[in-house]
Each structure stands twice: as structure tokens, then as C-alpha cells.
Write a structure and sequence with these properties.
9% of the residues lie in helices and 46% in strands. The chain is mainly beta. The strands form 5 sheets. The chain has a 22-stranded antiparallel β-barrel. The two termini are 49 Å apart.
């Protein structure tokens, strides 16, 4: 593994150094912000104004709007995955998770990254990532709802910052800065699709800036995006063989079903319609400046589930109710809105900023094209579509921020900052309709039972203080502390200290020590639902429920973290910037999901206590399920994450045009240092989700050539190996699922048709690289079975869904843009 990484870095470094040597003699002595992103002024990670990214004492990555537009898919999650080395987006999920994919920083949980919009905390999604894998438990803000065309830039602080920003900022902070231009109009149309397997998509967006009176601005963005179903894999193993032939024991009518034996479409993208609108406004009244922003998003999405065989539901005479079988869909209707209003101004030599932000996400869940087998057996009738209920999540945040400079004889004034925050959060589940909660409910996704339903709320209050000092010109020191009180957890205190020393204009060292605190989000505490497949049924018991306590679990506690980091910033020649930072993060009482705790395996009762807990919670399991059990979230682990991040940026002037070269990478390794639940409850599959289910390194080499009317944007990304322990029988036996290191190529060609119109064509994953197939267990292929996959799946020739670059292969697109 390290040999491949070393070879890739050597080749990438050689390319950068060769270009550096070619143009170093002709390089000018001064930089420009356009050539060097380090010249940009940042607002993240500091309470001071006028700080350049190149002067920051903490690692800050800047991504401008132009970089975002040169990614094929107009999806912020996918864009940041390709651009930012520390950022990883979920590529595939199960159940509702496939409709609202998540993301994370530094190999930690999605919940360990704080998302800000214009410096204000963004509300969490109502969707909760229950499916196993590296993103399990995520309920962070859904940045997929933010159109790239609304963004001026993104500042990514990859350092623990809970003392500055509060709970969640253990891995870092993503601050999304909206466009604030008071003039101009731009629009784009994008269309594309995968090389094979469907997944056609299109998007249309527009941005308008206009004056608001004499001293104000209003910037508006709208986007509509569509993505169609994709389908990967081959035959359903219950009907066909790996070679696509029909099993000899299958009824002839099953073999005659259209598409047989490739009947199971569960492996692929969901169908997704997303419409978003953003507004950003401000007005200068002189002594006081007013600002506001708001957003509204509506998503309608459906995800295809496991195929149900014709014999799943029988009529009273033994014939099939649905002779062709059926593919259930999980569908959502989501509405998300948010708004911020604020006033700010001068306070003597200092500043004040008073703001209020409210956001809410509401998701109605449906099971479509399905059936309730028990309802049909008992009454002779079943609907095809079921209303399963609703998730809601809201957050109301109020902030007062104060800054003041004090002369103390240092080379610069001592910058003092203090503030207060009050936040109210809610989370709710609304029960499903009658047919959706009758006994085991519809196939694929049962409705939420009355015992699942509820509305929960909490309040949080915090005070913070921040000191920035520059005793001498070369040395800066920053100290921050934060006290927080949660109505459901009590008090916490976090601190952060970081420093930077410039040995000259070309080299500086920087480092940080911090502690952090993360309160369990309300979804982790109260989410409850039942996940089913053709062979299993698993109840997700709420961590804070009486049913969980029957199994010996306690209410969730906050996570605590300690972090250290250190690195350097170098400018060895004009325009070349190199940064490198190493870090370590320890998290105690980390909230993790248990593995499936079996109650029943076949006809064998594994644990009557588990079945009693299911009954106490009011759930009825599908009697056809071979495996039945529960899963919970608990403070089950202590972990240690070691990592490093590096970047090099260099613009080169050549005879054919300007080339912006970049090399960036991230390496991290997470280890379980204490299993608080024991190997039975937190089994080797769950451990592998923490330690090995995400790529341990990602390195990207990019080059953007601008030559007259042409642009060529090339990116090579190396993903490290991933693996997980998987089981076909709920933990009775274990196998290792692996993906080797992979290199993915992205290419875009652009041409300026006129001063206002641009055309681009490109590819993400140009060479259609796909992950390896999930292997069969040797000796399991018979005349009546296509074999047993090591992960218990039902689709043969199935791509490994652990893939950090997705399962669909190459995506090819065209984009037409106009800017006036």
C-alpha cells in the first residue's frame, strides 16, 4: 500500500518540480490573489478581520466558485470529494440513506464536522444514517441542498475548533460563503450520465445580483436538478446464476418475467428531483449594517429496494397475487428551509454582531409499489402505497459576538473576542398510516409505530472568549475557551490554543492543542425504525428508550475529544505555496452503532431478551425473515486518529498558456483503543466500519491549463485501499471484503464561444473504473441457488459498495454557461 502511495507521490512531485524549475527564473517577485489562493482574506478559524489564508495559524483550505463549476456533477458533496483531500462523501446508502447521502472530514464521523453558512451554524438533516459503513450514525447538515452556483467560496478548517464554534467541530469546520455581488447574471445547463447502467442527469441553475437601494445588495440563486435511477450488478441469486442463466429449480414463469434473472435493482442511484433557492442580502445604514440570507429546498426522491419474488404474497388458492413479483420503492418528499437575520456595527474600536438563525428539515417517507403480506392474509386486501410517517429536525440559534482591540505594547493590538449563543433543537417522528403499521408493515420499509413516534427538544447555552496576540512581528498566539450548558447533558468546557512563528517570508511553523465536546444529536438518541430485507428484519431501538434499557443499555453521554496538530507553511519560490500538517485526535465515549444483536436465526431463538425488547417497543417483525434482531447506538468506543494533510499550489506560465498546478493529499488512520461494549455487541464488522471502511489516504494531482479561449482541467486522484468484515448470516461467520488502491481520472475541456458563453465537456472517472465484485462463498452454488455472497447480498456480479469513488463507473457530461 505505502509503496503505491510513494510511487504516486514521487511522480506527482516530479511533475510539480519540473514545472517549477521551468518557470522559476521568469517568475515575478510579487504574488496576486488570483494566482495564489493564500492571498484571500478568511473569516473562519479567527475572530480577527483582514487575516490572509497564507497567514493563518490553523490549516485553512479555500475553494472558489470557479473551481466548483469545473466539476461535472452540480452537487456540492461530489464537488468537494473531488477537490478537497480531507473530504469524503458517501457514495451509496441503504433505505432512506440512499436518498440523502452524507459526508465527513479527516476520516471521522459526519457528526464531527460543523457546517456554517456565512459564519452561522447550519441546521441538521432530519434523515439519519442507519445503514452500516463509514458514515453510519450521520445526521449532519445536508450540504447537497446548497447549490454550487450560490457559493462565492468555501473555507475548510481542518482542525479541532469546538472551543471557538461549539459542539460538533471536532474534525473541523466547513464555512460556506454565499455570493454577495450586487450586479451580474449567470446561468448554466448541465446534462450527463453514466457509461452504462443508467443514471442520466440534468441540472439548470441561475444567479442574479442586483442593488438593494443605494447601499445594499440582493443576490439570488435557483437550481433544479434531476438524477435518474442507475442499476449495477447482474442476476438475482434466487433466480439466476453468475453467467445470467436461469436456475434449474426456478418455476418457468419466473424465468419468463421481463428482464429475468436481472430482476433486482437495489444497487444503484436513487431517482432524485431537487429544487433549491437561495437569497443573500445586506444593507449598509452607516453605523449599522443589516444582513440576511435564506434558503428553500424541495426534494422528491425514490430508491429501488430488493426485488420480492412472486411467491412472497399468495392468494387463498395458492396462486401469486403478483405473478411478476415486485420491486418496492422507498420514497421521500422533503422540504428544507432556513433563514438568518442580523445586525452588526462598530463598538468604539471594536465590533458587535447580533444574529438569529432558524432552520428546519421535514421528510415524509413512503413505501411505494409494495404490499403488506399479513394485511392481505388477514383481510384479503393490501394497498400498494403506504405512508410510513415523517422525520423532522429544527434548530434555532441566536448569537451575540463582540470584538475589541487593546493596545498592550505588542507589535499589534491584543484582539479580544467574546460572545454568547442560545440554541433550541427539536427532533420528531410522526407515525405511519394504518396499513403501514399493521403487523410487520409493507415489504422493504415498515411504517413508524406509535412507539417510534415522538417529539423531542433541548436547549443549549454557551459563552466563549477568544484572545489573539502578536507579541512580535513573527509570532502569533491564539487562545479560546468555551463553556456550554445543555438541558439534557449539563455542562462542558472546551479550550483551544494555537500558535504560528514565521522564520521569514518563506517559512513558518504552526501548531494547535485543543479539547472538544460533542453532545449526542437528538436523532442518535431517539431515532427508531425497522430495516428489512428479503431475509432479515432489524429494529433500530432508540438509545434512550425503555426497550434499550431492558438489554442493559443506558442513555447516551457526550463525546469528549483531545487533539494536537503541527505543521508548516513554505514559499520556497514566488507563487509556490506548500503546506503540511500532522494531527492526532482522541475521542472518548464515541457514539457508535452496535452490530445486529440477534434474537432469532431461522427457527432458533438466539436471545429471548432481544425478542422481548422488540415486543416491548411495539414492533412486529416479518415472520418470513430468517434473521431477526435489534441494533442500537451507544457510547461504545474510544478511538485514536492519526493523520497528515499536505498541499502544493503553483501557477506556471508557458508558451501555450497558464497552468495552475496543485498537489494535495490526506492520510489518516483510525484505531479502536477501547471497546466499551465487548466483542459480541460491537463486533468485528462494526469495528471495521471505524477502522478500515474508508480510504486511509487520498492524493490528488491537478492541472488547469488556460490558453486563449480554451481550458483543460485534469485531475488524477489516488484512493487508498478499503476493507470491511462482512457476514452473510448476521455474524455467525465473517469474511473480508476488499478494494485495492485505485486511480481515478477526471477531465474537462472548455471553450469560450463568446465573451459571455462557455461550453464544456468532460468526464468524472474518465476510464470507467469500477470497484471489484463481491465474491461468492466457494461451494455455495447449487441447482437451486446462484450461490451465497460473502456479504449476504442478493445480487450476483455486484460491485463492492465500500468504494470511495462510487459503484457506477464513468460519468460523462456537457455544460453550457452564460455570464453577463
Amino acid at each position: 500500500m505505502m509503496k503505491r502511495l510513494g510511487n504516486f507521490l514521487s511522480a506527482a512531485s516530479a511533475l510539480v518540480l519540473a514545472a517549477t524549475a521551468q518557470s522559476a527564473q521568469a517568475a515575478p517577485d510579487n504574488d496576486s490573489a488570483g494566482d495564489n489562493p493564500g492571498e484571500a482574506i478568511i473569516v473562519t478559524g479567527t475572530r480577527q478581520t483582514g487575516i490572509r489564508a497564507a497567514d493563518s495559524a490553523a490549516p485553512i483550505s479555500l475553494i472558489d466558485s470557479g473551481t466548483l463549476t469545473r466539476v461535472g456533477q452540480p452537487n456540492l458533496n461530489q464537488a468537494l470529494t473531488q477537490i478537497a483531500p480531507s473530504f469524503a462523501a458517501q457514495q451509496f446508502g441503504g433505505d432512506v440513506s440512499n436518498l440523502t447521502l452524507s459526508a465527513r472530514l479527516r476520516g471521522l464521523s459526519p457528526n464531527h464536522t460543523l457546517v456554517l453558512v456565512n459564519g452561522k451554524r447550519r441546521h441538521n438533516t432530519a434523515s439519519f444514517q442507519v445503514s452500516g459503513g463509514a458514515f453510519q450514525g450521520g445526521a449532519a447538515p445536508d450540504i447537497d441542498l446548497i447549490p454550487p452556483s450560490a457559493i462565492a467560496r468555501i473555507e475548510i478548517l481542518t482542525d479541532g475548533a469546538a472551543a471557538q464554534y461549539g459542539s460538533d467541530a471536532i474534525a473541523g469546520v466547513i464555512n460556506i460563503i454565499l455570493k454577495d455581488a450586487d450586479h451580474g447574471f449567470s446561468a448554466s445547463v448541465t446534462g450527463g450520465g453514466y457509461y452504462q447502467g443508467g443514471g442520466s442527469s440534468n441540472a439548470q441553475s441561475a444567479n442574479l445580483g442586483t442593488k438593494l437601494g443605494e447601499k445594499g445588495f440582493l443576490n439570488l440563486t435557483v437550481q433544479h436538478r434531476y438524477r435518474g435511477y442507475s442499476q449495477q450488478g447482474g442476476a438475482d441469486r434466487r433466480v439466476g446464476n453468475v453467467d445470467g442463466s436461469i436456475l434449474s429449480g426456478v418455476p418457468a414463469s419466473w424465468g419468463a418475467i421481463a428482464g429475468s434473472p436481472n430482476l433486482n435493482p437495489i444497487l444503484g442511484d436513487a431517482q432524485n428531483y431537487l429544487t433549491t433557492a437561495f437569497a443573500n442580502a445586506g444593507y449598509d445604514f452607516g453605523a449599522v449594517q443589516a444582513y440576511a440570507n435564506g434558503s428553500f429546498s424541495r426534494r422528491v426522491a425514490n430508491s429501488q429496494q430488493n426485488y420480492r419474488l412472486p411467491n412472497r404474497i399468495l392468494k387463498s388458492d395458492g396462486s401469486y397475487l403478483y405473478p411478476g413479483g415486485f420491486v418496492p420503492l422507498i420514497g421521500i418528499h422533503e422540504q428544507d428551509y432556513a433563514g438568518t437575520v442580523g445586525l452588526k456595527g462598530a463598538l468604539g474600536k471594536g465590533t458587535w454582531d447580533l444574529s438569529s438563525t432558524y432552520g428546519k428539515d421535514q421528510i415524509d417517507v413512503w413505501t411505494l409499489n409494495s404490499a403488506n403480506a399479513s394485511l392481505y392474509t388477514d383481510t384479503g386486501y393490501t394497498p400498494r402505497n403506504f405512508y410510513d410517517g415523517q422525520f423532522t429536525s429544527s434548530q434555532w440559534t441566536n448569537n451575540l459576538d463582540l470584538t475589541y482591540p487593546v493596545e498592550v505594547g505588542f507589535v499589534e493590538p491584543l484582539h479580544l473576542a467574546a460572545g454568547a449563543e442560545f440554541r433550541r433543537e427539536t427532533y420528531g417522528i410522526v407515525q405511519g398510516d394504518g396499513p403501514s403499521i399493521y403487523k410487520e408493515g409493507p415489504q422493504a420499509y415498515p411504517g413508524f409505530q406509535p412507539t417510534d413516534a415522538g417529539r423531542h427538544a433541548r436547549r443549549a447555552f454557551s459563552l466563549y472568549g477568544d484572545i489573539s496576540a502578536k507579541p512580535v512581528a513573527a509570532w502569533q498566539v491564539n487562545l479560546a475557551g468555551r463553556f456550554e450548558h445543555y438541558s439534557d447533558f449539563g455542562n462542558a468546557f472546551s479550550f483551544r490554543a494555537n500558535s504560528r512563528y514565521d522564520f521569514g517570508p518563506d517559512f513558518a511553523l504552526r501548531g494547535t492543542v485543543n479539547t472538544g465536546f460533542r453532545a449526542p444529536n437528538l436523532g442518535e438518541q431517539y431515532y427508531s425504525a425497522t430495516s428489512v430485507s428479503p431475509t432479515s428484519a432489524v429494529v433500530q431501538l432508540p438509545a434512550n428508550s425503555d426497550a434499550a434499557k431492558l438489554l442493559g443499555f443506558q442513555n447516551l453521554k457526550p463525546e469528549r475529544s483531545t487533539g494536537i496538530s503541527g505543521g508548516f507553511v513554505a514559499h520556497p519560490i514566488p507563487r509556490l505555496t506548500i503546506t503540511a500538517d500532522a494531527y492526532a485526535t482522541w475521542i472518548r465515549n464515541r457514539i457508535v452503532a452496535t452490530g445486529t444483536i440477534l434474537g432469532k436465526s431461522g427457527t432458533t431463538i438466539v436471545s429471548q431478551a432481544v425478542l422481548d425488547a422488540v415486543a416491548a417497543h411495539g414492533n412486529v417483525l416479518d415472520p418470513a425473515a430468517t434473521y431477526a434482531g435489534v441494533s442500537l447506538f451507544a457510547n461504545g468506543a474510544d478511538t485514536r486518529t492519526l493523520g497528515a494533510e499536505f498541499s502544493a499550489n503553483y501557477p506556471v506560465s508557458t508558451a501555450i498558456g497558464k497552468i495552475d498546478l496543485s498537489l494535495a493529499g490526506s492520510v489518516n488512520d483510525t484505531k479502536l483503543t477501547r471497546n466499551r461494549l465487548g466483542s459480541t455487541l460491537f463486533n468485528e464488522g462494526a469495528v471495521s466500519n471505524l477502522e478500515t471502511a474508508a480510504a486511509p489516504y487520498k492524493v490528488g494531482l491537478g492541472g488547469l491549463l488556460t490558453s486563449g479561449k480554451w481550458t483543460v482541467n485534469l485531475r488524477e486522484t489516488l484512493y487508498g485501499p478499503v476493507s470491511a468484515r462482512v457476514s452473510p448470516n448476521s455474524g455467525a461467520t465473517w469474511y473480508t471484503s476488499r478494494i485495492a488502491p485505485s486511480v481515478i481520472t477526471d477531465l474537462e475541456l472548455g471553450y469560450k464561444l463568446s465573451s459571455a458563453i462557455d461550453l464544456a465537456i468532460g468526464a468524472n472517472n474518465l476510464f470507467n473504473r469500477k470497484p471489484p465484485l463481491v465474491p461468492l462463498i466457494p461451494g455455495t452454488v447449487t441447482a437451486t441457488s446462484g450461490g451465497t455472497l460473502i456479504n449476504g447480498g442478493t445480487v450476483l456480479n455486484a460491485p463492492n459498495t465500500l468504494s470511495p469513488f462510487g459503484i457506477n463507473g464513468g460519468y460523462y457530461y456537457a455544460r453550457l454557461s452564460i455570464a453577463l
